Amino acid sequence: MRELPPTAGLPLRLTDLRPGRAALAAHMARWLGVEQLQLECSGTAAMVVALRAMQRLRPQRDEVVVPAWTCPLVALAIHRAGLKPRLCDLAPNHFDMDAALLAQICNERTLAIVPTHIAGRVADVQASLEVAHRHGAYVLEDAAQALGATQDGRSVGLLGDAGFFSLAVGKGLTLFEGGLLLARDTCLRDAFAASHDDTIHADAGMDWKRALELVGYTLAYRPSLLPLAYGRPLRKALAAHDPVAAVGDDFGPDIPLHTVSAWRQAVGARALPRLRPFLDTTRAQAVHRVARLRQIPGITVFDDAPGQRGAWPFLLLTLPDEAMRDSALETLWTAGLGVSRLFIHALPDYGYLRDIVADTPLPNARAFAARSLTITNSPWLDEATFETICQTLARAAGAGHAA
Ligand SMILES: *Cc1c(COP(=O)(O)O)cnc(C)c1O
Description:
Blueprint: H1 24-32, E1 38-40, H2 43-57, E2 63-67, H3 72-80, E3 84-88, H4 99-105, E4 110-113, H5 125-135, E5 138-142, E6 150-151, E7 154-155, E8 162-166, E9 179-183, H6 186-199, H7 204-220, H8 226-239, H9 243-246, H10 262-271, H11 275-294, E10 300-301, E11 308-309, E12 314-318, H12 322-332, E13 339-340, H13 363-371, E14 372-376, H14 383-402
Parallel strand pairs: 2-3, 2-4, 4-5, 5-8
Antiparallel strand pairs: 1-9, 6-7, 6-11, 8-9, 10-12, 12-14, 13-14
Helix pairs in contact: 1-10, 2-3, 2-6, 12-14
Bound molecules: pyridoxal-5'-phosphate.
Protein name: Nucleotide sugar aminotransferase
GO molecular function: pyridoxal phosphate binding; transaminase activity
InterPro entries: DegT/StrS_aminotransferase, PyrdxlP-dep_Trfase, PyrdxlP-dep_Trfase_major, PyrdxlP-dep_Trfase_small
């Protein structure tokens, strides 16, 4: 049995794990072509550090505007920073926020707007900038899924005022968990550094835990071992009708806030030279596969606009309705082919976020959650298997049309 991962993570090598120390933020800053980066223990931690800093600079503001369909950790990070998430519905059949709604939602309470580069696709940061700067708010880009993506040659994360990347499992380059924070101007950079010093502490126990997890990931991240590490828990959760657990969206309220050991940084620094070629390979594969998916009537697949060069961890697409999407997933989700869902719900529909996000009408976000699925862009997904996925999708979309 072989099992493909749901996203194209850069595989680590055993030699990456040899003893050593590095300052990863400096390596990554050079790699991204940015002046400065701040390393944090997760994307979520990066967001907590950034929002606390922003609030210290604009203390009368307490709301953070996020897309209603995004990673639940985003809502938990906002809550942890002592702020309130304000949800913006998506544009129809799109992952990005509805620009007209965004303009209505923002006001003098808005601390930050968080345009989100879902699936490595570059979101419309300009729309957020216009609204944010009209109201004196910041733009904090959520580039957790978009390390390496650019617009007009500039890295995402610096299109607005600030941004963060995730180095979690499944998001390209990984330290098992990690995050990178960047800001355009020195005032915010200094505030982020001060916020880090206040919020983040060394934790030897977490260093050991993450070190062991990183070794486990390095060993298990291959199609022959992923049935154990990923497939079995996935199928168990689906059999128990728990899709939230199946995609690993079942987060607790605890957000670890600690430093990243010099050894884990060294592991990332050793893998980093392989990241550009890996992103180029996955881009070439994605461009070709997006074109194939476009031939299937009823499927919407998300791509780069002119000037954008996104990252391609997986392909994000929608079917015409939930029944068709579910019919496609019925065979594909458990087949070990790297077909999955991204976020199961719009944020208010996660039970554990009930006290954190307000339940408002969010028709487009709920429709997107119900109609979307993802196909891994791992190089381990071969052409023939991709073609069988396409045929299953065509049947699912076509059957619905006939009915
Ligand atoms: C994963 C993710 C995060 C959180 O990053 P972690 O490194 O897992 O804490 C935030 N936003 C989005 C869109 C994500 O996919």
